[in-house]
Amino acid sequence: MKKYSLLFASVLLLIFSCGKENSVNPNPDFDPTSNGDTEPIEDIIIPIDTNSNGGDSASQMLKATFDVTDIDFAFCGFVTNNTSITTIITAANIDTTKAVVITIMSDAPTTNVDYNFIADGSATYNSDSKNPDLTNTYISTFGSVRFSSVSSNKLVGTFSFVGANGDNPPSTVSVTNGSFTAIK
Asked: Which tens digit of pLDDT belongs to each residue from 117-165?
């Protein structure tokens, strides 16, 4: 559980401390025009555009029901890494107090395929990303994501999962009706 919390904290650190100037090249299967080279894993930047005057921020979003509360996340981006065959989708709400990270460990995303969070990756929800500790970080125990549209710069899909935190005994959150449009 601690390993996942550290991964989640590292991804959040990347989101909020790095700019858009660094990026990875797409997987050649995912984008046939690319050469398939990637940046080292430590240089991956999650390109979330928080500037309302630039980028395609109006069309990026993630929303879901967390237990009984509907939450909209205004910023949603993704990166792909050809070396480890990983796709990471990240989302943050407007005041960056909540965050979602969906990681798929598989070939380039394919439409209409269910990616199971136990076999193919994970989902993490942080209910207080300003204080990412085990009591407010929920890591998927089961669930899945499905892509309805895939391109080199945009992913659209749906997801659901049940996450547990590190409390003893652990508490859970049920995430349903999840949908996203992630922009690279």
From this structure: 987 789 999 998 887 777 888 999 999 999 999 998 999 999 999 999 8
pTM check: above 0.85: no
- Look up residue 19 and give its DSSP letter: -
Cis-peptide into 109, omega within 30 deg: no
CB 109 within 8 A of CB 148: no
Among residues 126, 121, 130, the alpha carbon closest in space to that of 159 is found at: 121
Name the H helices within the chain.
2-17
* H or E element in which residue 115 lies: strand 114-116
Give the residue ranges of the chain where pLDDT is below 50. 1-32, 36, 38-57
